[in-house]
Every structure is written in C-alpha cells, then in structure tokens.
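call fold(seq) -> tokens
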Amino acid sequence: MIWRSVVGKLWATILLLVSFVLLILTFFFMEYFQNYHLEQTEKNLTTTASKIAVILEQHENLDLGLNVAWELVDEVTKVVIITDEEHVYYSPNHEEDDFPVSYFKEDQELSKVFTKQQTVKKQIAIPFNDEKHKESVLLIGVPLEHFSNQKGAVFIYQSLDVMKETMRLTTKVILLAALLAFVLTTVFAFFLLTRVTSPLKKMKEAAFEVARGKFETKVPILTNDEIGELATAFNQMGKRLKINMNALRQEKEQLSSILSSMADGVITFNRDGTILITNPPADRFLQLWYYEQNRESLEEIPPIVMELFQKSVQKEEEQIGEITVQGRFFTLIVSPLYNNENIRGAVVVLRDMTEERRLDKLRKDFIANVSHELRTPISMLQGYSEALLDDLASNEVERKEMTKIIYEESFRMGRLVNELLDLARMEAGHITLNKSDIPLKPFIERAVLKFHGLAKEKNIHLYVEYLCEENAHFYLDPDRMEQVLTNLIDNAIRHTPSEGSVKVVVNMVQLGLQMEVSDTGSGIPEEDLPFIFERFYKADKARKRGSSGTGLGLAIAKNIVEAHKGEIHVRSKLGQGTTFSIFIPRNN
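ret:
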C-alpha cells in the first residue's frame, strides 16, 4: 500500500505540513483582512461624515448643503443628519424607519455625540428583511458644532456584508492555493517515486537476493547523491559478505573434513548437555551403544559420558574415563569449551583402544606362548643331559637314544627361534623377496614331491590339479612361496586321516595367480577361524609335541603372501575339511 511506502509517508507529511501552514496563514489573513477592512471602512465613514458636517456648517442654505452632502454619499452608505429635535434629514437611499431619532438619543454610547460633542463609532445589528436575519453595520457619529446654535450630529453607517464577501473571496483563494499545493505535492511525490523509491526498491530486491545467498547481486548506481552512495555501500557490503561467507564456508568444510577424517570420535556438547556436532566415528560409537542398550531414542547419551561431561563443566577441568561397547574398548577424554571466560559446553574425544588392548594381549600371550614352547625342549635337554652326565645310560644304545632326543629337541628349539626371527623381520617390513619369472608346473611339483612319501605312509591321496596352461609362468619369489605351500601341505596331511585326500589347485586368471590347498580332514571350529593366522595359534589346546608344530607357520605364510601384495583366506567346516586360498596379483 502507498501509505506504508516511503513516498506515501513523505506525501502525507508534506500534505500535513502544507495544510498546517495554510491553516495558520488563513487564520492570520482573515484576521488581518477583517481588521484592515474595518479600519478602512471606519476611516472612510469618519472622513465622509466630517466632510458632511463641514459642508453643512459652511453653507447658510441648508437645502444646498444637503444636496452637496448627498453627492458625497455612495449607494452602500447611508446618512442621518440631526440638526435639532424637530429636524432630521435622511439620505436619499435611507428609510426613516431604519433608524428613528430616538434610537440615536437614547443609546448611551451614541448620545455622547450630543452631550459631549465627540465622534463615536459602534457596530450594531439591525433586522434584515425579517426578524430572524440581522445585518451587521458600522455606525459613525460626528457632532455638528455651531449649527443654528443647536447641538446636532451626522450619523453615517454602512453594512459590513461587503467585508464578509471579501472574507469569502479570500477563503476561496486560500482553498484554491491548498488544492494547488495538494496537486503539486502529489506531483512531487510521484517525482520522488521515480528518483528515490525506484532505487530503494531495487536495493530491497537486491537485499532479498543477498539474503538467499546470491552475494554477486549488484545495485545499479544511477546518481551521485546519497542514494548513489548507499548503492555503492550496498555493493561493497555484498562483495564483502561473499568473501566472508566463502571464508566461513571454507573453514566449515575444513573443520568438517578434519572431523570426518579423524580416527577418534568427537562429540561437542552445549552447556545444557545437547549434542551440537558429531563426526562419523562418534556416530558409530553412539549407534553401537543404542544397539547394545536396545534404545530407540537417538537423543539419549551414555551415562558415563554425561557424568564426565557434568564433572568437566562443574570443575572446569579435563575428565578421563573408559567404556566398553559391543566388545570394543573406548577411552573418553572430556574437556570444557570456553566462550571468552565462560564455559559454553564441552568436547568429548572417543579413542578406540581395542587394537591397542588386542596388541597388548598378543604381547602377553606371545611371552606366555614362547615360554611354553621353549620350556618343554629345555626341560628335556636339561633332563637327558643330566642323565648322560650321571652315566644313567646302561649301554651304548640307551646313550645314543638320549643323544638323539637331545639333538631333536635342540633342532626343534632352533627351528622355533629361527621362525620367530623370520616372523619378526617380516612384521617389521624387513623381508626381502627375490622375485623371478618362473614356470609354475615345475615349481608346484617340486613343492608337492617332498610330501609324497609322507602321504603314502599315511595312505593319503595327494595330487595337483592344473586349471592353466602347462607352460604358464608367473613373477614371484619361488623360495618364499615354496615355504608357504610346504606349510599348508604339511598341515593338510597332518590333519587328514587315512584314506583321505589333499588337493592342490593352480589357476591363472586375468588379475593374477590363484592357488588352493584343500583337505578332507577334521576341519577347524568356526570360533577359531578368525584367529587361525595369529602367532602360536593351535586348534589343539593341549599343545602336544610332534604333530602339533610351533603355531608360527600360518602367521609366516600370511606375511609372505602379503609381501607379494596378495591375500590368503581359509574356509573350513568340522568333519568336512579345510581349504586355504591364495591370490597373488600380477603386478606384485
């Protein structure tokens, strides 16, 4: 609406101002014109009355004086001449009944003309046509001195309706001026509409565009006045806002990228405990906790987290705690966040310590396993050595038997130490591969040939199945890969009963080399499959000597395959056998 616009308000303001000024001017003009006209009428009437009095006093012939006097009177002016009580003369345009002689002599103010010989004036209202309408007149009385030695007077009066007519004309002029001012103000307002409001509307539209994020929006600069300067300032503001918003967006994206790429979970709380920001690891932690607690509300916080948060806010210091969720261990570090000098919340850092706990457990288990594996051969070495020193062997055969046992146990202990050293070097990344392009069929047959005797002795069918060309070649370290095949075939034969079978499958695919070693043995329990490649793992928990091995072979095999940038997997079911799958990529 126009009344709500700047032009409408300016238009209304100017109209009110002009109306107020015209009202004041009208009041003063009316008062001025009325007083001026009254003064002029009074002055003219007094002058005319004085002239008539002088004429009558100077002419001895009264009729001649009256004729001259009537010449001075116009149509709107009426005269009453009183020479004495018996002689009263009225001007030709005057009726005797208008003002009787008694009225002049009985009126207290008008009678002063006769008694005090002074000029008097008075405004009176006389009936006009009927009693309801009265006419306002100005009456002037001038004394006649020394006229026939009598005290007479000249009364002259004139209607004030002429002055009222003048006031009406003046009012019309003022109303016309007001109408002209209204028209000019309207024209001026519409002029402002094009000169002021149009740029302001463009600025408003541009401001809405900027509010929508279009900071490149600019306002055209059409003038060099304050509006032009405002447009220039607006454009500079939009440019600056764009720079600041881009900077804020970059900082936000950078912060979001940092939070998203962090391995630790981060949760930012408001002072009242409301979650403000989380990153993906923190979201996964909360989802695990909701799942474990069977919670449906995603707004609940783990009690220990909230407890540490409240302590951190109250004590204004860092708090540390631990929580276990779905078998994973998390360390909580809660630090207060400050806004100037006041605490505005806290940040919680969730560090997944599961791998560290697992490695610590592996370290402890490693020490226990090595101690367990070395204790038996060392005990046997010590026992049989003491027996030899004490000459407990009764004959040469028993002495050789003891010496053989000492040799086998020392060899077993040396093999364990060597395997430990190899495994340590591999895990430290110090393994060196001597790769070459070798023919696959001779390489596989050489590795399998070593176990033909053992397989025949245990009545196990050992064979190779080639799914590739006989002259196929591949780039790898033959000694290390033979060590892997040896370990897998040896394990398969040792855990396969009589009349069983062990099969080695070789296949060349587009991406690389695939090999499988499968058996029809006892299989591996499902709960043991995730740990099959760990050091000293044995499905035989009794850890018997002989066929049980050291428990390091599969760990070494996995490291050798991974050194070739390959993968090794196992599939097994109890009573149905086990299959180890190896894949080596071409560009290893």
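Residues 6-58 form the longest helix (53 residues).
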